[in-house]
Specification:
Mean pLDDT: 92
Largest sheet: 2 strands, antiparallel
Strand order of the largest sheet: 1-2
Order of helices and strands: HHEEEEHH
Number of domains: 1
Low-confidence stretches: none
Radius of gyration: 15 Å
Helix content: 55-70%
Strand content: 15-25%
Structural class: alpha+beta
Oligomer: single chain
């Protein structure tokens, strides 16, 4: 948002870094989801809380959307991928909504 508001290239660099960290550090390919809380020690990721929260997925969608609006093209496919993941994990077609 800062890059889109102010246009300073430093903010775009920060957005690239933040997006890559979300995509690469929080994503758990084995369990196909985003870890809620992680820490790093000696270049090793440790999951502190791997709970899959719909609330957290909403923030992943928000981050991907803002990254895409800032011009980070690799964020665009993640919007659809994240939405599809939310549907698989959290949407119950028999719940009536």
């Amino acid at each position: 948002m800062a890059y889109r508001h102010f246009g300073d290239a430093r903010y775009l660099d920060d957005a690239h870094h933040a997006f890559a960290f979300l995509r690469d550090a929080h994503w758990d390919p084995a369990l196909e989801g985003y870890d809620w809380e992680i820490e790093w020690h000696d270049d090793q990721k440790r999951t502190l809380d791997g709970t899959r929260h719909c609330y957290g997925m909403a923030f992943v969608l928000l981050a991907c959307t803002h990254a895409a609006m800032a011009g980070i093209d690799e964020a665009k496919p993640m919007i659809d991928e994240t939405f599809a993941l939310m549907e698989r994990r959290f949407w119950d077609p028999h719940a009536g909504f």
